[in-house]
Specification:
The protein is mainly beta. The chain has one domain: Neuraminidase, CATH 2.120.10. It contains 2 helices and 20 strands. It has a 4-stranded antiparallel beta sheet. It has a 4-stranded antiparallel beta sheet with strand order 2-3-4-5, with no helix packed on it. Strand 18 and strand 19 form a beta hairpin. It is globular, with a radius of gyration of 18 Å.
Length: 292
């Protein structure tokens, strides 16, 4: 089966085609060695123009960011590591649908107090490479473990933290930038969005009306599943639902991300990066019962 997938993807790359459909969850690197518990990849994200992809990959105790750039023939370059400031962890990258920058988390030292936990950083992408990475201000990076950033086209930043009165291992929070002061106003999500279990690996559609994240909460199909939630007509977030099949399985499904136009879902299945059309991914939304 993997050989057939590989053959079809090679044909697509050779033709430079962009119209291919992913009606099933398809490996992004079908010829790569199977990941181990120490080499899992996740959180693939794509720039607004569809020309850059970045993802996180574990390497033992270290986690690094890797980038690929679309070439003139429509194929993708070989992955290369990104040399951003860190000690041992660069993780959860996400391109912003608002300013186009890459947001991610790093454990690099920041601020005068020598803050060393995970903090959210931002860097501009350029045709030649990258600008100068910079941490978000202390109104976001408050000394807790803050990571899993995702920003919609309206500039609303979502992230997870074990601070800010978190009720679980890590909870989802929303932040809006005050353009005059440069500070972020952080607010909690509606009751029922977060759980006593950890939430993580956020992805939000460009219009800000749908979010994906992983959770250990029930009901679930596997060790950990991907969940989704939408905004109602009143603009408020509705309660999350298990994404169900064909995305979730009895294994470990996590690390959601989106293509630049929001039409495709990236995710990690047991540490292997996958891609699927978003409309196909949503087919099983809410289908997992409380008995599972």
């Amino acid at each position: 089966m993997r050989s057939l997938v590989l053959a079809s993807l090679v044909l697509v790359a050779a033709c430079g085609a962009e119209s291919v459909s992913y009606n099933v969850a398809t490996p992004i690197f079908p010829a790569a060695d199977a990941p181990t518990a120490f080499t899992r990849a996740y959180s693939m994200t794509e720039s607004r123009d569809g020309l850059i992809r970045v993802y996180a990959k574990e390497d033992g105790d270290y986690t690094k960011l890797w980038e690929m750039r679309k070439q003139e023939d429509g194929s993708w370059s070989d992955p290369q590591t990104l040399d951003f400031p860190s000690r041992i962890t660069l993780t959860t990258p996400s391109f912003s649908a608002s300013d186009g920058a890459l947001y991610y988390a790093s454990d690099a030292d920041i601020f005068e107090r020598g803050q060393r936990d995970l903090n959210i950083w931002r860097v501009e992408a350029t045709p030649e490479g990258w600008g100068e990475p910079e941490p978000l201000p202390a109104s976001i990076n408050d000394g807790a473990r803050n990571f899993n950033p995702a920003m919609d086209a309206n500039g609303h930043l979502y992230f997870t933290s074990d601070g800010y009165d978190s009720i679980g291992g890590h909870d989802i929070f929303e932040a809006v930038l005050d353009e005059e002061t440069g500070d972020w106003a952080v607010s909690t999500m509606p009751d029922g969005v977060n759980s006593p279990k950890a939430e993580g690996h956020l992805a939000v559609t460009p219009d800000g009306n749908r979010m994906f994240f992983y959770s250990h909460r029930a009901p679930k199909l596997g060790v950990v599943d991907i969940w989704t939630m939408t905004r109602g007509a009143d603009g408020n977030w509705q309660m999350p639902e298990n994404l169900g099949e064909p995305v979730n399985t009895a294994g470990i499904d996590f690390g959601a991300g989106l293509s630049g136009d929001g039409s495709r879902l990236f995710f990690s299945r047991d540490g292997e990066l996958m891609i699927i059309d978003l409309e196909v991914a949503l087919a099983g939304e809410g289908s997992v019962s409380t008995s599972q």
